[in-house]
Amino acid sequence: MKKLNFFLKIFTLLFLVQNQISLAKENKILINVDNKIITSYELENKIKTILFLSNQKLSQNSIDNAKAIAINSLISYKLKKRELENSNIRYDTTKQLNDHFKQIAFRINETPNNLKNVFENQSLDFDLYTNEIETEFAWQQYIFNIYRNKIDIDKNEVNNELNKFLKKESNIEKFNLAEIEIILTNEKEDKRKVEEIKDEIKLNGFENTAIKFSQGTSALEGGNIGWINAKSFSKNILKSIKALNIGEVTEPIYQTNSVVFFKLLDKKLEKLSEKNIESVKKQIIDRKAGELLDIFSNNYLSKIKNSAFIEFK
Q1: Rounded to two decimals, what is the model's pTM?
Q2: Pure H helices in the chain
Q3: Which of 211, 206, 204, 260 is nearest to 46 (CA)?
């Protein structure tokens, strides 16, 4: 019922701002999230940033399509920021931020040092964007610190999986991939979002859609997750990926609490060696740990959101 009320509030707010996003003159408080406010200026900046980074033109239609995404993202950002402040722990995100800005600069054919000027030329608040991204990287470290002792990977299970692979394979298959991940909420909303993402991929391309919609950490890099060993995936995901030709996208893959799309950018075979056998083993472990951390993070945020006081003005 809380989730239903939450979405009803969002749709009510969307209705109230249907004809304007505040492109404007007056900065109003739109939402109170546990005494952290979301203003019309922040919402406008978030929508315009989403559209800029996903390479979409600013129009009333594109603005309307991005509103719900922007509101959900800002609410999550405020809750994560509040939780991090309450923890009284500082996290060093310098390297992650620098790497992220290099990725953005590369995509738009700019230098990282000139990125702030690029944002300002687009009438975007670079400091607001930086704060959001910094919070996301700090949140990832925060979740890891909370749950690292609960990431119990069965060594025998890892070794059994590795041995089965070595018996069957003389080469290592690797895939260069991008992903779009969204968190499951309710059946009706999930179905609508999946169809919206499919349409968006056809219209604006996978990378731009990942920037706009994906809730996975790879969204910050346009969905790119790089070269991944075949053994890093569960059987059903691997089956879907292996069926792709380069440039194709999987059908939505439903997991425990999320839906994922993968795009195959490239693939290759590598001969087995002692070095890449260890790499296979590490990737099996990393995959299992990553799956657990994603579940912990999503559940923790959902718990916070359900208990938070969220008031739509």
Answers
A1: 0.64
A2: 2-16, 40-53, 60-87, 94-107, 115-121, 126-147, 155-168, 187-204, 206-213, 235-242, 274-307
A3: 211
For 9, counting Cβ atoms within 10 Å of its Cβ (0-12 exposed, 13-18 middle, 19+ buried), the class is middle
| More confidently predicted of 195 and 162 | 195
For residue 291, how many other CB atoms are within 10 A of its CB? 14
Phi, psi (degrees; rounded to nearest 5) at 180: -130, 125
Asked whether the predicted pLDDT for residue 4 surpasses 50, the reply is: no
Distance, in Å, from the CA atom of 205 to the CA atom of 186, rounded to the nearest integer, reads 26
- How far apart are the C-alpha atoms of 240 and 113, rounded to whole Å? 40
On the question of pLDDT at 164 being above 80, the answer is no
What pLDDT band is residue 248 in, cutting at 50, 70 and 90?
Answer: very high
Work out the burial of residue 15: count CB atoms within 10 Å of its CB; fewer than 13 is exposed, 13-18 middle, 19 or more buried: exposed
Going by C-beta distance under 8 Å and a sequence separation of 6 or more, which residues neighbour residue 281? 158, 159, 162
Radius of gyration of the chain (CA): 20
DSSP state of 24: S
Please check whether residue 307 is in contact with residue 184, taking contact to mean a CB–CB distance below 8 angstroms: no
What does the block give as tokens for 21? Answer: 């996003």
Higher pLDDT: 129 or 17? It is: 129
The pLDDT tens digits of the residues spanning 251-279 come to 999 887 788 999 999 999 877 766 677 87
Residue 152 has which token pair?
């119990």
Q: Is the pLDDT of residue 24 over 70?
A: no
Side chain identity at residue 249, one-letter code: V
Pairing of strands 253-254, 224-229: unpaired
